[in-house]
Specification:
The protein has 1 helix and 4 strands. By secondary structure, it is α+β, with helices and mostly antiparallel strands. The protein is elongated, with a radius of gyration of 14 Å. The termini are far apart.
Length: 78
């Protein structure tokens, strides 16, 4: 059995998912999805996904620390 890991990062009222690709290999890198909190017409809380980085690793996110630093910079520049 193979269990995939997804890391969650919270910054103030914002939530991000950090998802590893090729985990445990020299090709490993991470991509990031922001979960944007919204309410529907019935005041139910729902989350929409906003893909921040894709699977080409152009941001060079090779460690969890790289991913966390990217998120902090992303928040500061938005």
């Amino acid at each position: 059995m193979h269990i995939d890991k997804i890391y969650s990062s919270h910054h103030w009222d914002r939530r991000f998912l950090i998802i590893p690709n090729w985990e445990g290999t020299d090709k490993e890198f991470f991509h990031i999805i922001e979960c944007v909190k919204q309410e529907d017409n019935f005041n139910h809380v729902i989350y929409k996904e906003n893909i921040i980085t894709d699977r080409d690793n152009k941001h060079n996110l090779n460690t969890l620390e790289d991913a966390e630093n990217f998120i902090i910079n992303y928040i500061d520049n938005k």
